Amino acid sequence: MPVPDRLVIGRSDKMRAVFEFVDVIARSESTVLITGESGTGKEVIAGLIHQTSRRRGAPFVPVSCALFSETLIESELFGHERGAFTGAIKDRPGRFELAQGGTIFLDDVDDVPLGMQVKLLRVLQNRTIERLGGTRLIPVNVRVLAGTKRDLRQLVAEGKFREDLYYRLNVLPLTLPPLRDRPEDIPVLMEAFLGRFFSRRGDPPPPISAAVVRAFTAYPWPGNVRELENACERIAQMNTCGTIRIGCAAVNILLRASEEPHPVPQPPASAESSERSLDDRLREFESSLIRWALDASHGNKSKAAAMLKIKRSTLGDRIRHCGLESAPESREVTDRDAVGPWLAS
Amino acid sequence: MVTKERVEAVLGRVRPFLLADGGDIELVDVEGASATVRLSGACAGCPTAHITLHLGIEAALRDAMPDFGTLRVG
After folding, report:
1. For an interface test with A, which of B18, B21, B37, B73 has the most A Cβ atoms less than 10 Å from its Cβ?
2. Does pLDDT of A2 surpass 60?
């Protein structure tokens, strides 16, 4: 099945809580303030909120308030009339009008200049806009979602964000967790992104070595899901053998991951001297090495045998010899619970 | 100052991942400010892995030792 471009994925408790929140507020018309670091998927979640709302048939208009200068943002949001300023050669509707009946997502709302914040507040209160250079009030039926990567309350305390606008926006607060706080989602996201990028080049989803999953799970992803997505795209462009191995991963990811405690299971040190016989101690050491290899290979016995540089059949014999028959088998990822509701691009 | 120990310290941060993937990176020699390493395992024959590891490890060596010269992959 092709993987959609805009998908929200997570089996972690934190992402399940986000999905539940989106589900609960699906029928609401209230403003949602989405807070999250860069790359955590604020716009994707805003789109999901729109898609699950009654407004799903009407436009969803995302706009980053960080993109426009103080003078341009008013025209972008509210539009202008012909002759309002030099270069305004015709009437132009703003983003609020384009979102009529639907949802507008004001991302980076903390970048709205203080002077404009008053006008935005008035629009949110009166549900009418006035185009730049215009005189008539245009009613707008638009649900407002806002996004920010900063702590708006802190900005209010510093006098950089209007308190009244903050309360107007912060009706339904939603915080998106950074990827480093939900590492259990990383393997699922890797599979989804690599599957998508490989399918674009006409190839089946690639097997991913346990070592790569370990490294990617230990790396703290300061750029969050967007950085992980880009890393997967780079791998898909560079990969030649059809399997994702450690040689595909950028060295800076490995170096940073190596600073985390226990990024890959280490072979255990030999047991302390004791009363036990050499044979017992050797068997114990052999068991721990086999357990280490099985753990590092996610229970794949062929890979574990390759890591220990023995035959697959020999590994089976040694497992029996050490009484490890109940060693963990491959850990299957169940996609059913892993993929949340998604948006078609 | 480029020494075997300092080169090994950088390689040692990447090596556990290569080992876990059935490969390895071995320091063959340090000559002056340059070093030669040998890759083994499944990625050893992959041209893109060579570029990724070569450039990435060389950059890491230069971060650790600003006077580091070049890294050769044998």
Report:
1. B21
2. no
